[in-house]
Every structure is written in structure tokens, then in C-alpha cells.
Design the sequence.
């Protein structure tokens, strides 16, 4: 069992990137390089943060956050109590209808889903151009909190130098450098 | 169990689709059940007629009716398959985003198919059950309707009704069989023998079981084939590569 897990980790793609565990990474990509990147590193081991909805309209928000997870009911409550304040939310958000959530709230829901899921790495595509400045200022520190507390990796793929060189980014990677590795 | 819970939530959320599914399945189950019931009546007639001498013309008449019913049933089943396939394709496109969410949150293909199955089969079973309940509750009305439909059908097909002329010759036999009444018209005699032997609860139930079982089996087969094809086609579009390249 242990060996299996070790195998899975060693073949996990974050090591192939030159990623470090529990850190926020950024990769600056030119627009034409996105397809190259996806061809090379495409795998089911990641979750992708995207502006599209990842919520089922017919389930409650809480059920949506724990979609396809095997966490027990009691543990769910505990997890929500610890994580909602980190996301600057009170428990009242759980009573909201899924269809009434804004795009930004849906984005944060996706992050919560990622925190509660078994996947260890999340790719963040260029969502920042669609966000306002306060939203960006909330989201970037949140990325760091997630990697530290949930022990996961985040990789930002961006075309924007400002985002790629942000102080909240722990490790800066580039596509050429990963090629050498 | 988790899939069943999600499916129930989906069923109550998409009310209009559920309503349509209920109507769709109850209509088909009812019509198919009536047709199997009519087939049973005709075979019963044939069996009874076999005992009566000089009834070849009438046997021919009933046999012709029977083939008509069987043909109608076959056409109905074909029509059901086609319309269900179209409905199901529409349904998959209608729920495209939800299926995509299920796929991207890591549900397996089997899990997605399972959930689709529950989403459609639960209302289908309810519809078939409602048909059975209605038929059992209004047994007399149903029998009356069935016999009326039979007469109408015979009329519209315009098969020369052999029963009268032939049976008139052998009326003596029948009146012997019914001692208390001196004059029995042929129509009454038909109904008499029907009520006695054919349209009992047990036979109605049997017909219901056959027709709704057939419908559900067809549903299952079509659903499996179409959904698997659809998921295989969408796989490329729903992959990570596509997401990154698109952005």
C-alpha cells in the first residue's frame, strides 16, 4: 500500500515540472505555448480552476462542495468550520442557492472543492483578466493559505508578467526550464 | 446509493423533464398493455372456438384480428425505440453541463451512466406503476374501453365480421350452454365469455408485467448504447488539454 502511494507520488507530474511540494508556482507562457504545455503535461492528476461552473444546480451548496468525496458527515462539518473563515465566508453562504452565486463565488467554491478532494495539484489558467483588483488581492493570498494548510500544490499558468512575478508566488518556473529538466 | 440520491435531486429539480418522462412512459405502457390484453382476448376466443364445430370462418376472422394486433404492437415498439432515442439524445444535450461537471469532478464513466440510468428509470417505473394502479382501480372502465377499442379497430380495418352469419347457424349450441336464458344475442355471449375468463386481475397483471418489462428493457439497452457513445465522443472535449488550450 505504502509502496503504491510512493510510486504514485514519484510518477506524479508535479515532480516532472520541477515543482516543490506545498508551494504556489507560476509559469509564464506566451499565448501560443498553452497548447504545447497541455500536450506535454495533460493528465487526469490535476484539477483545473476555470471560470466555467463546477457546481450541480440540483444539489445544495454543501453537497456540491463534497461532490464525489468519501468524507464522513461529522468530518465534513468540522472541515467547513475550519475552511469557511479562511475563505472569508460565514456559514450563511451554505444556505444560498447554487444558481444565485456570482462567478467569483463559484470560483471560490471550486477552490473549496479542490481542498476537500483527493487531488493534490491544481492548475490555474488565465482567470485573472476577468477579475477585479480586490478579488485578485483576495485570491492570491488564499492560494498560499491553501497550499500551506491543505498541503497541496498550485500552478498558475499565465500570460501576465505581473501575476507571474507576484510576491505571493513561491516558485517561478518557465516552460523552457522544465524542458531542460 | 450516492448516485441514486443525486438522481432524485435532479428529478425534482428538472420538473418539466420529469413530467414529460412520466407522460411518455405511462402512455406507451398503457397502449402496449392494452394491445397485449387484446391479443390475449383473441387467443382466448380462438381457443374457445376450437371446441365449437363449423366455425372456420370465425376462426379466420379472429386470427386476422390477432395478426393486426401483433403488427400494431411491433410498430408501437419500434416507434417507442425511435422516440426514446431522440428524447434521450435531447436529454444528454440538455444536461451537457451537468454531465461535464460530473466528469470533471472525477466521477467514472460507469458512475455517470449509472446516474443517468437512475434519472430516467425512476420516473419510468413510477409511470408504469401508476398505469397498473389505474387499471386495477378502474377495471370495469378499462374492460369497457378495451372492448370498445376492439370494436372500433375491427370497424376501421373493415374485416367482414364473420361472427354473425356463422354463429347464427350454431346458435343452438350456445343456447344449450346457457340454460337460464332462452334468447342470447351473439354480442352478449361474447361479453359473457370474456368477463368470465379473460379480463381477470391476474391476466391484467401478467400483461402489465410483459409490456412494462419490455419497455424498461428497451430503455436500458438504448440508454446504455447512446450514453456510452456520447461519453466517448465528449471525452476529448472534456479533457484537461482542451481547457488549457481554450484559455
Sequence:
Amino acid at each position: 500500500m505504502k509502496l503504491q502511494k510512493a510510486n504514485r507520488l514519484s510518477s506524479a507530474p508535479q515532480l516532472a515540472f520541477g515543482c516543490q511540494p506545498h508551494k504556489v508556482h507560476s509559469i509564464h507562457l506566451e499565448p501560443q505555448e498553452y497548447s504545447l504545455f497541455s500536450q506535454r503535461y495533460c493528465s487526469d492528476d490535476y484539477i483545473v480552476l476555470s471560470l466555467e461552473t463546477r457546481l450541480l444546480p440540483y444539489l445544495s451548496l454543501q453537497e456540491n462542495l463534497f461532490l464525489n468525496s468519501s468524507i464522513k458527515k461529522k468530518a465534513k462539518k468540522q472541515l467547513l468550520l475550519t475552511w469557511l473563515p479562511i475563505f472569508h465566508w460565514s456559514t450563511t453562504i451554505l444556505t444560498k442557492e447554487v444558481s444565485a452565486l456570482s462567478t467569483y463565488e463559484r470560483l471560490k467554491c471550486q477552490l473549496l472543492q479542490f481542498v476537500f478532494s483527493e487531488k493534490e495539484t491544481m492548475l490555474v489558467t488565465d482567470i485573472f483578466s476577468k477579475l477585479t483588483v480586490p478579488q485578485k488581492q483576495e485570491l492570491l493570498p488564499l492560494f498560499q493559505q491553501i497550499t500551506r494548510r491543505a498541503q497541496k500544490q498550485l500552478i498558475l499558468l499565465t500570460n501576465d508578467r505581473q501575476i507571474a512575478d507576484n510576491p505571493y508566488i513561491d516558485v517561478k518556473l518557465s516552460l523552457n526550464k522544465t524542458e531542460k529538466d | 446509493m450516492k448516485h441514486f440520491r443525486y438522481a432524485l435531486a435532479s428529478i425534482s429539480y428538472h420538473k418539466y423533464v420529469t413530467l414529460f418522462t412520466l407522460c411518455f412512459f405511462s402512455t406507451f405502457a398503457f397502449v402496449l398493455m392494452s394491445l397485449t390484453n387484446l391479443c390475449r382476448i383473441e387467443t382466448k376466443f380462438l381457443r374457445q372456438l376450437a371446441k365449437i364445430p363449423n366455425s372456420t370462418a370465425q376462426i379466420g376472422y379472429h386470427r386476422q384480428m390477432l395478426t393486426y394486433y401483433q403488427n400494431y404492437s411491433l410498430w408501437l415498439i419500434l416507434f417507442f425505440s425511435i422516440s426514446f432515442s431522440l428524447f434521450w439524445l435531447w436529454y444528454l444535450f440538455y444536461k451537457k453541463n451537468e454531465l461535464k461537471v460530473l466528469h470533471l469532478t472525477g466521477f467514472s464513466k460507469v458512475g455517470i451512466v449509472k446516474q443517468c440510468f437512475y434519472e430516467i428509470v425512476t420516473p419510468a417505473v413510477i409511470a408504469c406503476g401508476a398505469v397498473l394502479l389505474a387499471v386495477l382501480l378502474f377495471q370495469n372502465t378499462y374492460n369497457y374501453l378495451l372492448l370498445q377499442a376492439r370494436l372500433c379497430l375491427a370497424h376501421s380495418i373493415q374485416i367482414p365480421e364473420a361472427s354473425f352469419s356463422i354463429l347464427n347457424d350454431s346458435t343452438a349450441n350456445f343456447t344449450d350452454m346457457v340454460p337460464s336464458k332462452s334468447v342470447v344475442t351473439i354480442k352478449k355471449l361474447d361479453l359473457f365469455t370474456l368477463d368470465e375468463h379473460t379480463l381477470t386481475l391476474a391476466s391484467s397483471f401478467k400483461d402489465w408485467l410483459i409490456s412494462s418489462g419490455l419497455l424498461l428493457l428497451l430503455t436500458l439497452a438504448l440508454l446504455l448504447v447512446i450514453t456510452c457513445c456520447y461519453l466517448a465522443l465528449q471525452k476529448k472535449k472534456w479533457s484537461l488539454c482542451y481547457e488549457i488550450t481554450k484559455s
Remarks:
- Residues 1-15 of chain A have pLDDT under 50 and may be disordered.
- DSSP finds nine helices and five strands in chain A.
